[in-house]
Amino acid sequence: MRCPYCGNADTQVKDSRSSEDGSAIRRRRHCPDCGGRFTTFERVQLRELMVVKKTGRRVPFDRDKLARSVQVALRKRPVDPERIERMISGIVRQLEAQGENEVKSEGIGKLVMEGLKGLDDVAYVRFASVYKDFREAKDFEELLGELSGEEENGGD
Protein backbone atom coordinates (compact mmCIF):
# COMPACT_ATOMS: atom_id res chain seq x y z
CA MET A 1 0.00 0.00 0.00
CA ARG A 2 1.42 3.36 -1.04
CA CYS A 3 2.03 5.95 1.70
CA PRO A 4 -0.44 8.87 1.30
CA TYR A 5 2.17 11.30 2.69
CA CYS A 6 5.36 10.57 0.74
CA GLY A 7 4.30 8.03 -1.92
CA ASN A 8 6.60 5.25 -0.69
CA ALA A 9 5.29 1.93 -2.02
CA ASP A 10 6.75 -0.11 0.86
CA THR A 11 4.60 0.51 3.97
CA GLN A 12 4.33 -1.86 6.91
CA VAL A 13 1.21 -3.23 8.59
CA LYS A 14 1.44 -2.67 12.35
CA ASP A 15 -1.99 -3.95 13.39
CA SER A 16 -4.94 -5.73 11.71
CA ARG A 17 -8.42 -6.07 13.16
CA SER A 18 -11.73 -7.28 11.84
CA SER A 19 -14.59 -4.80 11.94
CA GLU A 20 -17.40 -5.48 14.39
CA ASP A 21 -19.68 -7.02 11.76
CA GLY A 22 -16.81 -8.89 10.08
CA SER A 23 -17.34 -7.16 6.74
CA ALA A 24 -13.93 -5.45 6.64
CA ILE A 25 -10.40 -5.65 7.96
CA ARG A 26 -8.94 -2.48 9.43
CA ARG A 27 -5.16 -2.19 9.06
CA ARG A 28 -2.95 0.35 10.81
CA ARG A 29 0.06 1.07 8.62
CA HIS A 30 3.41 2.81 9.08
CA CYS A 31 5.76 4.27 6.49
CA PRO A 32 9.44 3.58 7.29
CA ASP A 33 10.56 6.47 5.06
CA CYS A 34 8.57 9.41 6.45
CA GLY A 35 7.22 7.90 9.69
CA GLY A 36 3.60 8.54 8.61
CA ARG A 37 0.81 6.46 10.11
CA PHE A 38 -2.50 5.76 8.39
CA THR A 39 -5.40 3.31 8.33
CA THR A 40 -6.70 1.23 5.43
CA PHE A 41 -9.80 -0.93 5.14
CA GLU A 42 -10.06 -4.12 3.13
CA ARG A 43 -13.53 -5.29 2.03
CA VAL A 44 -14.88 -8.10 -0.10
CA GLN A 45 -16.40 -6.96 -3.37
CA LEU A 46 -18.64 -9.55 -4.97
CA ARG A 47 -19.17 -7.80 -8.28
CA GLU A 48 -18.50 -4.58 -10.14
CA LEU A 49 -21.69 -2.57 -9.82
CA MET A 50 -22.73 0.19 -12.20
CA VAL A 51 -25.18 2.87 -11.10
CA VAL A 52 -27.77 3.98 -13.63
CA LYS A 53 -28.56 7.65 -13.00
CA LYS A 54 -31.97 9.26 -13.65
CA THR A 55 -30.51 10.66 -16.88
CA GLY A 56 -29.58 7.15 -18.07
CA ARG A 57 -25.86 7.79 -17.57
CA ARG A 58 -23.93 4.87 -16.07
CA VAL A 59 -21.16 5.34 -13.50
CA PRO A 60 -19.23 2.85 -11.37
CA PHE A 61 -20.68 2.32 -7.90
CA ASP A 62 -18.63 4.18 -5.30
CA ARG A 63 -19.00 2.99 -1.70
CA ASP A 64 -17.19 6.10 -0.46
CA LYS A 65 -19.71 8.36 -2.21
CA LEU A 66 -22.52 6.44 -0.53
CA ALA A 67 -20.79 6.82 2.84
CA ARG A 68 -20.29 10.58 2.27
CA SER A 69 -23.97 11.14 1.48
CA VAL A 70 -24.97 9.21 4.61
CA GLN A 71 -22.45 11.22 6.67
CA VAL A 72 -23.90 14.51 5.36
CA ALA A 73 -27.37 13.46 6.47
CA LEU A 74 -26.02 12.37 9.88
CA ARG A 75 -23.84 15.46 10.40
CA LYS A 76 -23.87 16.51 14.08
CA ARG A 77 -26.28 13.70 14.99
CA PRO A 78 -25.55 11.40 17.96
CA VAL A 79 -25.24 8.11 16.04
CA ASP A 80 -22.52 5.57 16.81
CA PRO A 81 -20.07 5.27 13.87
CA GLU A 82 -20.25 1.46 14.07
CA ARG A 83 -24.02 1.59 13.44
CA ILE A 84 -23.41 3.85 10.44
CA GLU A 85 -20.78 1.48 9.04
CA ARG A 86 -23.10 -1.52 9.54
CA MET A 87 -25.87 0.31 7.69
CA ILE A 88 -23.60 1.17 4.75
CA SER A 89 -22.21 -2.38 4.59
CA GLY A 90 -25.76 -3.72 4.68
CA ILE A 91 -26.79 -1.52 1.76
CA VAL A 92 -23.77 -2.65 -0.29
CA ARG A 93 -24.53 -6.31 0.51
CA GLN A 94 -28.17 -5.83 -0.56
CA LEU A 95 -27.08 -4.25 -3.84
CA GLU A 96 -24.59 -7.06 -4.55
CA ALA A 97 -27.12 -9.73 -3.56
CA GLN A 98 -29.61 -8.50 -6.17
CA GLY A 99 -27.52 -10.37 -8.72
CA GLU A 100 -27.58 -7.49 -11.21
CA ASN A 101 -24.49 -5.62 -12.37
CA GLU A 102 -26.51 -2.43 -12.78
CA VAL A 103 -28.53 -0.72 -10.05
CA LYS A 104 -30.71 2.36 -10.37
CA SER A 105 -29.76 5.40 -8.31
CA GLU A 106 -33.37 5.54 -7.08
CA GLY A 107 -33.00 2.04 -5.63
CA ILE A 108 -29.88 3.07 -3.74
CA GLY A 109 -31.72 6.14 -2.44
CA LYS A 110 -34.61 4.01 -1.16
CA LEU A 111 -32.21 1.68 0.67
CA VAL A 112 -30.47 4.68 2.27
CA MET A 113 -33.82 6.12 3.36
CA GLU A 114 -34.83 2.80 4.93
CA GLY A 115 -31.51 2.59 6.75
CA LEU A 116 -31.61 6.19 7.99
CA LYS A 117 -35.18 5.79 9.21
CA GLY A 118 -33.88 3.11 11.58
CA LEU A 119 -30.91 5.21 12.71
CA ASP A 120 -32.09 8.79 13.12
CA ASP A 121 -35.31 10.61 12.17
CA VAL A 122 -33.55 13.94 11.60
CA ALA A 123 -31.03 12.38 9.21
CA TYR A 124 -33.90 10.59 7.48
CA VAL A 125 -35.72 13.89 6.87
CA ARG A 126 -32.50 15.59 5.72
CA PHE A 127 -31.76 12.86 3.19
CA ALA A 128 -35.39 12.66 2.05
CA SER A 129 -35.48 16.40 1.40
CA VAL A 130 -32.67 16.05 -1.14
CA TYR A 131 -33.60 12.61 -2.48
CA LYS A 132 -37.25 13.57 -3.04
CA ASP A 133 -36.30 17.07 -4.20
CA PHE A 134 -38.46 18.98 -1.71
CA ARG A 135 -39.48 22.41 -2.98
CA GLU A 136 -41.95 23.65 -0.38
CA ALA A 137 -42.55 23.48 3.37
CA LYS A 138 -45.59 21.26 2.77
CA ASP A 139 -43.25 18.58 1.41
CA PHE A 140 -41.61 18.45 4.85
CA GLU A 141 -45.00 18.49 6.58
CA GLU A 142 -46.16 15.47 4.57
CA LEU A 143 -42.99 13.50 5.36
CA LEU A 144 -43.18 14.40 9.05
CA GLY A 145 -46.84 13.39 9.04
CA GLU A 146 -45.85 10.01 7.62
CA LEU A 147 -43.14 9.62 10.28
CA SER A 148 -45.42 10.51 13.20
CA GLY A 149 -48.17 8.28 11.80
CA GLU A 150 -45.78 5.32 11.73
CA GLU A 151 -44.67 5.98 15.31
CA GLU A 152 -48.30 6.04 16.48
CA ASN A 153 -48.89 2.71 14.72
CA GLY A 154 -45.88 1.04 16.31
CA GLY A 155 -43.51 1.69 13.42
CA ASP A 156 -45.49 -0.31 10.85
Helix percentage range: 40-55%
Alpha-beta content class:
alpha+beta
Strand segment count:
6
Number of domains: 2
Strand content: 15-25%
Give me the side-by-side strand order of the main sheet: 1-2-3
Q: Strand-and-helix sequence, N→C?
A: EEEEEHHEHHH
Q: Give the C-alpha Rg.
A: 19 Å
Distance between the termini: 47 Å
Q: Main beta sheet, described?
A: 3 strands, antiparallel
> On the 0-100 scale, what is the average pLDDT?
83
Number of helices: 5
Low-confidence stretches: none
The coarse overall form would be elongated
Tell me what you see in this structure:
By secondary structure, this protein is an alpha+beta fold. It folds into two domains: 1-44; 45-143, no CATH class. The protein has five helices and six strands, in the order βββββααβααα. It has helices at residues 63-73, 81-97, 105-119, 121-131, 137-152, and strands spanning 12-18, 24-30, 37-43, 50-52, 58-60, 102-104. The chain has a three-stranded antiparallel sheet, with no helix packed on it. It has a three-stranded mixed sheet with strand order 5-4-6. α1 packs across α2 and α4 packs across α5. The termini are far apart.
Kindly list the characteristics that best describe this protein:
single chain; 156 residues; alpha+beta; three-stranded antiparallel sheet; three-stranded mixed sheet; 5 helices; 19% strand; elongated
Describe how the helices and strands are arranged:
Layout: E1 12-18, E2 24-30, E3 37-43, E4 50-52, E5 58-60, H1 63-73, H2 81-97, E6 102-104, H3 105-119, H4 121-131, H5 137-152
